[in-house]
Each structure stands twice: as C-alpha cells, then as structure tokens.
Amino acid sequence: MAVVEVTPVRSRSDEVRMPRRTPLTWVRNGGLATFVFLLPLLFVFGAFSWYPIVRTVLMSVQHTNLVQRPTWVGLANFSAVIHDPLLPIALKNTLKFAALALVFGYPLPLIAAVLMSEVRKRRGLYAVLAYLPVVIPPVVAVLLWKTFYDAGSTGVFNTVLGWAHLGPYPWLQSQSTALPSLVLESTWANAGGTVIIYLAALTIVNPELYEAAGVDGAGILRKVWHVTLPQLRGVLLVTMILQIIATAQVFLEPYLFTSGGPANSTLTVLLLIFNYAFGNSLGGDYGKATALSLMLAAFLALFSWVYLRATRSWSTG
Questions:
Q1: Per-residue pLDDT at 34
Q2: In the structure, what pLDDT confidence band is assigned to residue 185 with cuts at 50, 70 and 90?
Q3: Given CA atoms 268, 270, 271, 276 in this order, what sign does their dihedral have?
Q4: pLDDT tens per residue, range 63-98
Q5: I need a labelling partner for 14 at 20 to 30 A (CA). Which of 3, 117, 121, 310 fits?
Q6: Does residue 212 sit in the same domain as residue 243?
Q7: For the chain, what is the domain count?
C-alpha cells in the first residue's frame, strides 16, 4: 500500500514577515549617513554636468548674447545653422581631418607598440619618449610646431627638406597642405597615450601563441596579423571610436595654427561653434552656438550607439 505524504498547508500568518520599511528604519540602517556622504558628489555632478546640459538646451531655443535679455526663438537657431553656408565647409573639413587622422594616426601607435614590445632592452625609455609629447601642454606644442612650419627657407622643416633640395613649402599658408599639417601635429601630440594603451594590452597576449606561430614559420608580420590583431580586437575597436569622437571635436589645432584659414580650409565644426559664440566682440550668438553643439552631440551619440551595436559581435567573438 502506497504511503501518501501530505504537506501541511501554511497560512499567511505562519510565513516570515519582512519588517516594514519606514523612514525611521531607513535612518537606523545608515541611509541618512549614506545620503550625507553622497550630497557633495550629487552637488558637484549636478552643478558641473547636468546644469550646463539643461542650460545649453534652453539657450538653443533662445536668442541671447549673455548681455541682453534672452528672447524665445524656438527652432530658428537650428534652421539658421543648417542654412549657414559655412556649415558644409566645416563638416567637410572635419570629416577630412578625421579621415586623415584614421589613415595616418590610427595605425602608427599600434606599429610603435608592437616594435617596442619586441625590444628587449630600454623598453621603458622608448615608452617614455613615446609618451613625452602627451606631457607637453597642448598650447606649447602647437606654438612649437608653428615655428617648425615657417614657410620661409629658414623654417625647421623647410631647412631639413632643403638638404635634399626640396621645398620650401608653404605648409600652413596653402589650402592643400594646411589641414594635413594640422593632422601631422595632432598625431604627434596624441599618439603617445594610445601607445601606452597598446603596450599594456600586449602584456595579456599569451606568449604561447607567438611560439606556436613561430614553430609554423610565421614572421613578425604574420604574427601581428594572425595573433596580435585578433587578441587586441576589443581594444582596437574602443580606441577607434575614441579617436573618431576626438577628431570630430578638434578645435585647438585649427584655432591656434590658422584660425580656420586659409580661405576656411581648416574651419572645423567646433571652431564654427566658437565663432558663433565669441566671433563678435560686441556679444556672440550663443543660441546658434548651443544649437550646433547639440546637433554635434546628438550625431556623436547616435554614431557611437550604431558603432557599438555593429561591432559588438566583433569585440566579443
């Protein structure tokens, strides 16, 4: 005869009751102390992060120069920016700067990091020398390179090229060479930080993979292509999106080198925003400046989202 086990039915009163959350219990459990410790952080974050964002959105629908009383204009600032004949020029120059920076500035740090990783002696010295341009203040670096780009025959670059009977070249004074000259300086100034990132990433690559590739007869180029690049795939994708965002916001080089010239050949989106806000000594049009800033921020946010979604499988596969 089978024995049926009967489970007693428990009433709600038999269940363990959770203590009721009240403001007093929240204070006793340390909630108030936690909130007090968070107050300075919340204040700083709100004052220096969220308030400027909210203020920017409000200014983008106003006509204001921060001197006179602002007036509501709605989407007129966005329409004025879109129909500005300088906007296509700024977009074209920014895209060209980003493309040149990716073609020349993106692979150089990786090549330098791979070469440094193969060096057995004085690797730390080479890493310091690669990172040194990052330590130099950006304004000082630009002013230093501005003397190198002297269009005269006594300029540093023209003097060196003169030894090979080349030049002199106008560099910053020519519409065809001004933007590539800015890309060259920007690559020199910013590549050091990426080199350090790649050097750190290379330390996690399993040495046995290189040994196995060497047993198969692979040279350094094949090792880099079949071992290094696949192992650094996630890091490479992150550094690429960071470089694209940084080049889309380039401002210092065009402003200090050429002020957007010659003939607007180095005018970028951020420099156009600066001209909207501060180009007029009697008070700039901050409405148009903030409108273009929001448009740039929205584009970069959308581009980053699409990029991360498209490369998710590559970075984790």
A1: 79
A2: very high
A3: positive
A4: 887 777 888 988 999 999 999 999 999 999 999 999
A5: 3
A6: yes
A7: 2
Pairing between strand 62-63 and 71-72? antiparallel
**Whether the predicted pLDDT of 220 surpasses 80:** no
- For residues 176-190, b (16+ Cβ closer than 10 Å) or e, as one string? ebbbebbbbbbbebb
Both 219 and 305 in one domain: the answer is: yes
Taking each helix axis from N to C end, the angle separating 178-202 and 86-100, rounded to the nearest 10 degrees, works out to 40
36 and 108 housed in the same domain: no
CATH number, position 147: 1.10.3720.10
The answer on pLDDT for 1 being more than 50 is no
* Torsion angles phi and psi, residue 311, rounded to 5: -105, 10
Mean pLDDT comparison of 20-24, 100-104, 230-234, 264-268, highest-scoring range: 264-268
Other Cβ atoms less than 10 A from the Cβ of 126: the count is 16
Amino acid at 52: P
Q: Which of 142, 96, 139 is nearest to 248 (CA)?
A: 96
d(CA 143, CA 230): 39
